[in-house]
Fold this sequence. Notes:
136 residues; mainly alpha; Catalytic domain of cyclic nucleotide phosphodiesterase 4b2b; disordered N terminus
Amino acid sequence: MCSTLDESVPDGDISIDGEECSSPRSGFEELLAKLSSPKLSQTLDQRLVIQELLQSACRDFKFDIGILRDVTNDHALLTLGMYILTVDTKIVTELGLDPRALCSFLLDIEGQYAPHPYHNKNHAADVLQVDDACFF
């Protein structure tokens, strides 16, 4: 079941590409704002575009992870992972996990991937998306 962004996750600071941003709560929305691509027109509400993409990712087996990669400045794994675990399934809340630690962990995972043409962080995000669509 796909959910919309909510206010259920506490605030905190994380750094993405050298910029500080709050993690989940309005934090998840702020995270999305920090990741929004300057490639999109300034007239679009990029957070709504990303939220719509994330909702689609939960239910669509034909979802194109490349679109999410592009609108999140190459942070599809971080964005999708945070969305699935904090908003869609609420696993973070149910298990009492620290969303800032999760965000840091996902950033670390992204950073460990080499720029390989296939087995890269975008492939990991693609696998995560298909697993979520299949099992949740």
